[in-house]
Amino acid sequence: MFKKKEKLSDKIDFSRLPHHIAFIMDGNGRWAKKRGRLRTFGHKIGAESMEVVVRHARDLGIKVVSFFAFSTENWNRPKDEVDEIFNIARKLLVNKKESFLKSNMRVIVIGDRSRLPLDLQKEIVECENLTKNNDGLVVNVALNYGGRAEIIGAINKIIKDGVKEVNEEIFKSYLQTSNIPDPDLVIRTSGEQRLSNFMMYQCAYSELYFPKIHWPDFREKQLDEAIIEFQKRDRRFGAIKK
Q1: Domains and CATH numbers, the chain
Q2: Does the active-site annotation cover 26?
Q3: Backbone phi, psi, residue 172, to 5°
Q4: What is the rounded distance in angstroms from the CA atom of residue 124 to the CA atom of residue 115?
Q5: Are 92 and 125 in contact (CB under 8 A)?
Q6: Known catalytic membership, residue 87
Q7: H helix or E strand, kind and range, residue 22
Q8: From start to end of 47-190, where are the E strands?
Q9: Is 131 left (phi over 0), alpha (psi -120 to 50) or beta?
Q10: Cα(210)–Cα(188) distance, rounded to whole angstroms?
């Protein structure tokens, strides 16, 4: 008899899955340039990778996925590229809204929305309200987000509320991610090894993984590989292993 071929996912220990995986989706422009295409094409295919990763994470049993879609620094990019990123976000929210609802997924968007196009702001609110009671996979998207701006914003809210003494629990309650756990695993594609102002407070004890592959090529296999690597790490959170 033929031996059943082992799948990569068979090597995953499902009792030790990362609860929250965050993705810095890097390399869309470089991926497109290597193929003689516009950077905007890379973002379009990158959105397909995002959809694949969401479905696969749900099927694996991951509880939260976060995506760094647009940073506060990305406004320095060409206008056509910025417009295309927002157009892709708009289409995902509109076209996948019912799918999120039927799949029991909850959508959260963090970042400063005030500078986003008004119709995109409207779609964000509508999608969040539609899925707010879902208790399946949480899909957290960072749009016009910066970790330093988030921390400063939290401090200003604390001052405004007249809080006299702050501990970690109180401070975290003022962050935009107060309703989700900190990332266990942060994946940044394209081989770059930095956080680029993403969840600076929340990632204090996250495991970091930097595959050289560009984001448009990141699919189910690459997510399985990242989880398997994560499960090889010895997470001690400053303690000594007994």
Answers
A1: 17-148+184-230 (3.40.1180.10)
A2: yes
A3: -60, -30
A4: 13
A5: no
A6: no
A7: strand 20-24
A8: 64-71, 106-110, 138-145, 185-188
A9: alpha
A10: 5
**Residue 131: both structure tokens together:** 């899925």
Active-site residue identified among 26, 182, 184, 224: 26
The amino acid sitting at 164 is K
| pLDDT tens digit at each of 242 positions of the chain | 445 556 777 899 999 999 999 999 999 999 999 999 999 999 999 999 999 999 999 999 999 999 999 999 999 999 999 999 999 999 999 999 889 999 999 999 999 999 999 999 999 999 999 999 999 999 999 999 999 999 999 999 999 999 999 999 999 999 999 999 999 999 999 999 999 999 999 999 999 999 999 999 999 999 999 999 999 998 776 665 65
Catalytic residue among 10, 74, 197, 217: 74
**pTM for this entry:** 0.93
Measured between alpha carbons, how far is 51 from 60 in angstroms, rounded to an integer? Answer: 14
Q: Are 182 and 190 in contact (CB under 8 A)?
A: no
